[in-house]
Amino acid sequence: MPLDDRVPDHRLLDEAAAWAARAGDPSFADWDGFTAWLEADAAHARAYDVVAARAQDAADALAAEPHPANDDAPVRGNRRWLRGALAAALVGIAAVGVLQFRGGTYTIETAPGETRTIALDNGSTIALGGGSTLTLDRRDPRFARLDKGQALFAIRHDAANPFHVDAGEDRLVDIGTVFDVRFDGAMTTVAVAEGAVSFNPGQQNVRIAPGKIVSSAQGSHEYELGDIQPSEVGAWRTGRLSFQQATLGSIADDLTRATGRTFEAAPGAAQRRISGSLLVDPVKADPASVGPLLGVRVERSGDGWTLEPQ
Amino acid sequence: MSSSPSPSGLEAAFIERRAKLLRFLAARGAGEAAEDVLHEVWLKIAAADTGPVASPLAYLYRACDLMMIDRYRSARQARKREKDWTEAMGGAVPGVSDAPSPDRAIAARQQARLAAETLDALGARPAAIFRRHRVDGVPQKRVAEEFGVSLSTVESDLRIAYRALAQLKERLDEA
C-alpha cells in the first residue's frame, strides 16, 4: 500500500478532522455518508489517515505520560483561561497557591445567569451556580475545587474516601452531606443542609452541622459561625436568593451571577450588611425591582446597576 | 438485522452487510486488499468475544476503521524504522529489541509534551475534551454532559484538536 503522510491542504484537513471527530465516537451512525466522502476522492482517505493516526499518536503519548516531565506544559492553557476568569477576584490577594494545577484537572464554567448540574460517577451531584468556575480531577473523583462562584454539593458519603472541596485556601471535607459553598476570591462561605462538613480539618477544624453557616476570609484563620434554615441552603437552585447580614458587595456579586445582569455596590458601601430574600427571575426581568426587596436604592450605571443603602 | 443484539447479532450483521463493509474498506484505502482486511477484522472480533453489542453495524464499521488506522500507523512506523536504520549506517546492532530504550523514552516524552502544548494552545476546553474523549475513552455524549456543553461543541472542539495535531507536520513522527 503506498504510504503518503504528507499533511493535506487546509480544506481537506478540515473535512478529514470533522469526519474523524464524528466517526471516532461509538454512537456515530452515518457510515454511508462517510463512505461516500471517502469514495469522492482518493486523497480523502489519505487525509483521514493522517488525521486519525496523529490523533491516536497524541492520545497514546498522553496516556503513557500522566505526569509530564515538564509539569507546566499541559496546564498552561488552563492557567491562561483561569487567569482571565479570576483576574478580578485575585487582585491584591496573596493566594497564588489557588492556581495549583495537576495534569488530570478540567474546568467547568458557567455564564452569569446560567446554572448547571454535574453528575459525578458515584451518584453524587454538584449544582453549579451562575458565573462560577469549578475544577474537577479525572484522577480523583472525590475532589472538587470551587475557583469562583457558588456550588451546591450533594455528596454520597464514603467514609474510606471522603470528598474534598477546596475553595481558595480553605479545604472542606464532607461527612456525608448536602452543602453549599460560595467563594468570591476573598471570602469562603459554607452552609450545610444535611450531614456535616469539616472546615479546614488541618487548621480550625470546625465541624459544620446542618443549619449552620461558616464564613472565613482568605488569609485569615478567623471564621464566623451563623445559623441558616437548612431549607434555604442551596435555595438559589430554585431561583430564590436569601441574604442574612450579607455585605452589599457579596449581594451584588450573587445577583450578578444569578441573573446575568451586572450589579455593583456603590462606592464605599460594599461592606454594609443587609438581609432580605428575592426571586431571581423577576430581578432578571427588572433589575430595579431589587430596591424595595432589599431596602436599597438601585441606580442604572452604564450597562449595570448600582446598589446603595438607603 | 437481529432485534436483540447479541454476538450472533454481530455475526448476522457481518454476513448481511459484508458488501457494504468491503466497499467502505476499499474506499478507506484498503483497495484490493479489502477482503483480506475484512477477514482480519472478523478474526479479531471473534477472538475478542465482545458479548452483546448495542449497534452491531456501527460496531463493525468502527472495527474496520480502527483496523485501517492501525495498518496505516504500522506502515508508517515500519517506514520510519527503515529510514532510521539506513541513517544509522546499516544498523550495527542486529536483532535490536523493541523494548523502550532511553532514547525511545525521551522521544515518547517529547511526543507527549508536543501533543500537550499543541492542545493547550487551543484553549483549556478543547484540550480537556480531547483528553477526556481520546485518552480516557469517554463517549462524546458523556463528555458533553460533564463539560456542560452541547454535543456539537464537543465535536467541534475535537475537530479543532485533530486538525492542530495533524498540522504538527512531521514533528510528531520525527520526534
Can you walk through the features of this model?
- The complex is a heterodimer of chains A (about 300) and B (about 180).
- Chain A is α+β, with helices and mostly antiparallel strands and about 300 residues long.
- Chain A has three domains: about 10-65; about 105-230, Jelly Rolls (Sandwich); about 240-310, Phage tail protein beta-alpha-beta fold (3-Layer(bab) Sandwich), CATH 3.55.50.
- Helices cover about 25% and strands about 35% of the residues of chain A.
- Chain A is built from seven helices and 16 strands.
- Chain A has helices at about 10-25, 30-40, 40-65, 75-90, 250-260, 280-285, 290-295, and strands at about 105-110, 115-120, 125-130, 135, 140-155, 165, 170-185, 185-200, 205-210, 210-215, 225, 240-245, 265, 275-280, 295-300, 305-310.
- In chain A, strands 1, 2, 3, 4, 5, 6, 7, 8, 9, 10 and 11 form an eleven-stranded mixed sheet that branches. Chain A has a three-stranded mixed sheet with strand order 13-16-15. In chain A, strands 12-14 form a two-stranded antiparallel ribbon.
- Chain B is globular.
- Chain B folds into two domains: about 1-90, no CATH class; about 100-175, Arc Repressor Mutant, subunit A, CATH 1.10.10.10.
- The model of chain B is unreliable at about 1-5 and about 90-100 (pLDDT under 50).
- Chain B has about 180 residues and is mainly α.
- Chain B has nine helices and no strands.
- In chain B, helix 1 packs across helix 4 (about 55-85), helix 6 (about 125-135) packs across helix 8 and helix 7 (about 140-145) crosses helix 8.
- In chain B, about 75% of the residues lie in helices and about 0% in strands.
- Chains A and B meet through helix 1, helix 2, helix 3, helix 4 and strand 1 of A and helix 2, helix 4, helix 5, helix 6 and helix 7 of B.
